Design the sequence.
């Protein structure tokens, strides 16, 4: 097929010993940075950027992409092992990934995660190579009304992760919403709920909050449930190298493919990206599952789908970046900055003016995926062992890493937010509230509020605009269908599923 | 602490939030939702749900107070953050790692000392040296 | 050729792995000398935007010539027309390792959003360029020319998008609305990414932005400029009429692009940065950047820059009061 000719050219550009050396170094450095809670891919790329300054653009961009992949992988390890998502995009991976680790199946979870990431990344790149022109058209269909509908669909994920405790779950999400309104309002430039402090002008920072609510909250409630004695069960100690079972592979394979497709499509939309993609993939998987009650308690598809989705979204994000010059996330923006430094202007002309570079980048992302799969499968045993450190040692160590990570990302203010978040997370978990619902609310609230107000300014206050735009209408109808489907299903007699 | 008390505390916070939200403009010149619109909705939702929650679960004492061990660990963690504020992250981490493992299990002084020194060194090398991140040095360093 | 910074980092990596010991990493850091620490460069706008690109270009040039060997870490603190980022830097009073790039809203925020600082609180370093707004339409949308835009705007309110709620672009637009006699319905976005998607999707027909942000889309003809606020448009968009030519030269408010340090930074550090910025402005890389980003060269340093900022702030304020808000 002739579409693959430029891609093959891309591989010949990418496959040199020097490039591969930089690629491997990038994956390793990225992984180390990503594992530490508090420094996500964006900080990782920014910090490690100087290392790439004096080499050829293709080599440099390969290394940057590798750092990005490595850091995302590292962040997932932390999410699974200690329930601490250092980036919003891996938040959904904690829902089932961490329960697996607690059951002593960290090894199996990490293997599944590695394979799902690889599948998602590669599927995303394949779709990118095949569908870039179509995807570009898709990317130009999203304005504020569509963003609002997407954020509403994302909120469904809150419904999906809640069990029977609907009311306290919605309450949790609203707490997240309320926290997100702290800071300066985009629409009016007015400060809200800042008590006149400069720190709160920037809003409550995500990284320290997530580290606190998830990481510290988890440690505190585990300490609490286990009493003060160390009661690591034997099972956890003996099963570090375990693999997912045959059944788990079978049910996760379609989940990965669906996750990849969702991830790519959402990733293409500029500015929404991997977080929403992974949440939606999780929600879809749970909605489709015949045994949704296993989700949140260590279901493999619940880990495979969001992992595939966030990696496919990273590929999808290349569409607006390369074809339109519009960065969809902080990490792609750093790439954009790098491109501009080298005199390459991303936009509709890039593919025709610098095809070598564009395809070289795509090929290098594929190579990055391969390198990462090798690294991660090789390292599973090492990381699975971490899950077996006795709690008397592990809990203080994790607390320290959380404090240091929060401090690295937002100074003493970050530490304070982190610790307050930790206590809040502990209290919420203890009294039957949902911390994931709260953080999802926190992440989606700004997108929902800004896009709603933008839409209504454009339409002069009329909500009819949502009906007039086909894409917004379509997303709205799909969301509505998903809402209606849940109760319908629940009302069916038990035996019929 | 009981669940009801937590809910009452949360309810008070939410009422304060509602009061603050109502001071922001609800609509702008074009009759379009302004800065106060979403916060007001959120606050009303919160207050309503907390009311329902309190009404239906009041007096449920099935979940009792936090046992002493967790209490101590929480205090130690708060101490860690507090010490980091005062004398800097690195000394705070060192102290915390020496004392905290004792709360959660039996670990000898040598074990804890090695852990404290080892992890602190790791943190300094990775964050300060390799990544060049400046960890907070605390109020104390500003006085000097 | 592997750069020395890379080798150092690689060495440090090995040190972490415990293969070799830490080899005197702190020896080269003299006590009293500036700089002795990594610099935090706060970018108060979304990645990929004009402010972001200028900051990253400055950082790259400084890195390229090795003028700041301790390394610079750019960090985007986005939101509220830039107030979040500058609020962060403001809170780091006296810290010589906090620097930020300013844009137009740096001057408008103090009186419009009740932020706790004024531009005079910061330590002025240099005005490096001026950024002039451009009105942009999607290529197949209704108002194909400035005249057509005015006609449709006079018929009924037209939504015009832009980045930030209160800045020089908005003031230019308001001035235009007043002079040309139409009602402006302004839509504030958080960054160029969201703004350009809104325009490409047809949710808004017209946006105000700076030419540098939309360069890829403008050059390809996906978007078209209908009016440019500067005196002479960059070569690659010479066919776009200027506000002056269209008879609205008086409404233009330009956006200052410059660099300030945290408040109350020592004069020696300020001098160090003025000197460095002078050197940056003289590099060929900077000239290339100005051309490609569609910026006008304008250099003002130190206290003189501080006074210019205060003066411009008053212009903004009186323009704002005239608007009656």
Sequence:
């Amino acid at each position: 097929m002739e579409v693959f000719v430029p891609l093959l050219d891309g591989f010949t550009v990418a496959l040199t010993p020097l490039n591969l050396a930089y690629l491997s170094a990038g994956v390793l450095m990225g992984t180390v940075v990503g594992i530490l809670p508090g420094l996500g891919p964006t900080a990782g790329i920014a910090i490690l950027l100087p290392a790439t300054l004096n080499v050829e653009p293709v080599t440099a961009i390969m290394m940057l992409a590798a750092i990005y992949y490595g850091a995302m992988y590292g962040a997932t390890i932390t999410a699974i092992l200690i329930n601490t998502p250092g980036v919003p995009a891996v938040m959904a991976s904690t829902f089932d990934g961490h329960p697996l680790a607690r059951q002593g199946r960290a090894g199996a979870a990490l293997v599944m995660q590695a394979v799902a990431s690889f599948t998602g990344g590669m599927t995303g790149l394949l779709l990118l190579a095949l569908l870039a022109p179509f995807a570009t058209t898709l990317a130009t269909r999203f304005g504020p009304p569509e963003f609002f509908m997407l954020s509403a669909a994302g909120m469904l994920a809150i419904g999906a992760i809640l069990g029977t405790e609907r009311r306290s779950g919605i309450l949790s999400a609203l707490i997240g919403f309320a926290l997100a309104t702290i800071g300066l309002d985009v629409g009016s430039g007015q400060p809200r709920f800042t008590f006149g402090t400069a720190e709160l002008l920037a809003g409550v920072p995500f990284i320290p909050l997530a580290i606190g609510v998830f990481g510290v909250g988890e440690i505190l409630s585990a300490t609490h449930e286990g009493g003060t004695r160390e009661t690591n069960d034997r099972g956890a100690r003996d099963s570090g190298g375990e693999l997912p079972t045959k059944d788990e592979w079978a049910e996760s394979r379609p989940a990965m493919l669906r996750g990849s497709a969702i991830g790519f499509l959402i990733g293409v939309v500029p500015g929404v990206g991997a977080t929403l993609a992974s949440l939606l993939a999780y929600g879809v998987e749970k909605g489709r599952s015949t045994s949704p009650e296993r989700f949140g308690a260590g279901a493999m598809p619940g880990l495979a789908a969001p992992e595939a989705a966030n990696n496919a979204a990273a590929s999808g994000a290349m569409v607006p970046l390369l074809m339109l010059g519009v960065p969809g996330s902080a990490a792609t923006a750093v790439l954009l900055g790098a491109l501009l430094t080298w005199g390459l202007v991303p936009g509709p002309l890039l593919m025709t003016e610098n095809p070598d570079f564009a395809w070289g980048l795509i090929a290098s992302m594929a190579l990055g995926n391969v390198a990462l799969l090798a690294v991660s499968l090789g390292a599973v045993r090492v990381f699975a062992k971490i899950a077996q450190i006795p709690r008397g040692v592990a809990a203080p160590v994790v607390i320290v890493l959380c404090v240091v990570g929060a401090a690295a990302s937002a100074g003493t203010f970050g530490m304070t937010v982190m610790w307050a978040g930790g206590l809040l997370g502990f209290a919420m978990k203890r009294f039957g509230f949902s911390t994931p619902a709260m953080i999802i609310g926190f992440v989606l609230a700004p997108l929902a509020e800004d896009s709603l107000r933008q839409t209504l300014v454009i339409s002069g206050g009329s909500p009819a605009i949502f009906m007039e735009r086909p894409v917004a209408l379509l997303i709205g109808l799909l969301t509505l269908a998903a809402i209606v489907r849940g109760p319908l299903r629940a009302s069916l007699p038990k035996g019929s599923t | 602490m009981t669940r009801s008390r937590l809910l009452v505390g949360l309810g008070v916070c939410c009422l304060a939030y509602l009061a603050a939200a109502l001071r922001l403009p609800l609509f702008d010149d074009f009759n379009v939702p302004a800065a106060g619109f979403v916060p007001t909705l959120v606050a009303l939702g919160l207050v309503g749900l907390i009311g329902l929650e309190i009404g239906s679960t009041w007096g449920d004492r099935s979940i009792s107070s936090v046992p002493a061990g967790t209490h101590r660990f929480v205090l130690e963690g708060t101490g860690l953050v507090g010490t980091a504020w005062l004398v800097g992250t690195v000394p705070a981490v060192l102290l915390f790692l020496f004392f905290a493992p004792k709360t959660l299990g039996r670990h000898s002084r040598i074990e804890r000392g090695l852990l404290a020194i080892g992890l602190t060194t790791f943190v300094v090398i990775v964050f300060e040296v390799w990544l060049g991140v400046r960890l907070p040095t605390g109020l104390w360093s500003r006085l000097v | 050729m592997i750069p020395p910074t890379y080798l150092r980092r690689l060495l440090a990596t090995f040190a972490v792995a415990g293969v070799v010991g830490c080899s005197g990493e702190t020896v080269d850091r003299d006590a009293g000398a500036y700089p002795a620490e990594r610099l935090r460069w706060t970018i108060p706008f979304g990645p990929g935007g004009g402010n972001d690109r200028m900051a990253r270009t400055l950082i790259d040039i400084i890195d390229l010539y090795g003028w700041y060997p301790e390394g610079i870490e750019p960090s985007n603190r986005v939101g509220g027309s830039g107030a979040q980022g500058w609020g962060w830097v403001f809170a780091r009073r006296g810290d010589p390792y906090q620097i930020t790039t300013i844009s137009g809203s740096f001057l408008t925020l103090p009186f419009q959003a009740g932020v706790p600082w004024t531009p005079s609180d910061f330590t002025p370093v240099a005005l490096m360029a001026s950024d002039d707004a451009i009105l942009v339409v999607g290529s197949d949308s209704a108002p194909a020319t400035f005249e057509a835009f005015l006609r449709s705007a006079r018929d009924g309110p037209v939504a015009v998008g832009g980045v930030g709620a209160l800045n020089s672009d908005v003031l230019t637009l308001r001035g235009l609305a007043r002079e040309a006699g139409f009602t402006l319905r302004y839509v504030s976005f958080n960054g160029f990414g969201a703004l350009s998607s809104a325009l490409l999707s047809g949710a808004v027909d017209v946006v105000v932005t700076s030419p540098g942000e939309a360069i890829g889309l403008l050059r390809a003809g996906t978007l078209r400029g209908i009016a440019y606020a500067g005196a002479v448009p960059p070569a690659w968009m010479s066919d776009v009429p200027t506000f002056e030519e269209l008879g609205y030269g008086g409404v233009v408010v330009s956006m200052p692009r410059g660099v300030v340090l945290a408040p109350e930074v020592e004069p020696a550090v300020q001098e160090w940065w003025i000197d460095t910025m002078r050197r940056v402005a003289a590099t060929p890389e900077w000239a290339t950047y100005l051309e490609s980003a569609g910026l006008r060269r304008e250099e003002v340093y130190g206290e003189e820059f501080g006074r210019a900022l205060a003066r411009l702030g008053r212009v903004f304020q009186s323009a704002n009061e005239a608007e009656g808000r």
In short: The interface with chain B takes residues 9, 12-13, 15-16, 22, 25-26, 37-38, 70-71, 73, 97, 157, 185 of chain C (CB under 8 Å).
